[in-house]
């Protein structure tokens, strides 16, 4: 364009006018930016600005970050498709989940896993990893420096050896990716010896532009305290809730520092541990919580600025559902009024809040205090009173 204008000098006045218009437009866009900022992903519901760490907004980023929280029951497996077309897999479910994960990744177009992370050597995180390693080209493998004597762990080590791979020690301060607007940093473990295996969990923060995800494995309160003390920024738009929603993770101080808009709990229906625990759900009030037991696989897509979410399971009670099996939930735009602002609640006489929803049989129900789902906070339907819930055709259930 500049070469052309050099040749045709008669265009200079037009170009000067264009330049003035562009400057004017830039002035306007900075106004627009501040408006967007207040209604955008970096704003919490009370309208206060959150700390941003990305590049100045308005810069056009090329590519999307896609994060898939796979529904693998009471286990973790998270596929991170990076905007540079690389793939990261954080955990690989339990021993039975290997083939499911291989199929899912293949369906998502994955041929190479550039970064494979085993957060810690428990079976519900590395169980399917040997199968994954055998089925894909693997780049770098990251695991914390801790071992167990289980067959599961030995199978993973054997697969790593078979492929001629090395294990990179996952520890705080390690930068997996450090490329301007795209960052993948390891925030934990900070220590080298823990009584509880969960605290060895590799905690990873992935940032694309203005949007951050925090993947915590099964890190518990001790690790959370160490991360807080380390002074590293924990702020993230999306938090993978630690240890399947156990009360031993997601401490109030940690959550306050992360300040997420969205939280995802990887958890199996009817698990033996009562996950997610009621205390954790209570602490997460006000955050948009997704659960793989209720929502199926949860997928976040971001251009580095806006966040869209889709869920694998059809939830007939949720707005925007088509009723078709496997239909994705209507994307929730983070800049819009948060769905939890639209919730109404049943006040059950001071004991807590009751959630109304539609169960898998299509019945309208709400959960009573002894139900494991009692404290669930979901962007579904809530009622101000039990009378209102009954009037809408819901009935109380115990389980
Ligand atoms: Zn676990």
UniProtKB/TrEMBL annotation:
Biased composition (Polar residues): 34-55
Tagged with keyword Protease: no
Xref: CDD domains: ComA-like_MBL-fold
InterPro entries per record: ComA-like_MBL, Competence_DNA_uptake, Metallo-B-lactamas, RibonucZ/Hydroxyglut_hydro
Gene3D superfamilies for the chain: Ribonuclease Z/Hydroxyacylglutathione hydrolase-like (3.60.15.10)
Keywords on record: Signal
Keyword Transmembrane carried by entry: no
SUPFAM superfamilies: Metallo-hydrolase/oxidoreductase
Signal peptide start and end residues: 1-25
Location of the Metallo-beta-lactamase domain: 74-269
PROSITE patterns named in the record: PROKAR_LIPOPROTEIN
Pfam family, one: Lactamase_B
SMART domains: Lactamase_B
UniProt-recorded name of the protein: Competence protein ComEC
Biological source species: Desulfallas thermosapovorans DSM 6562
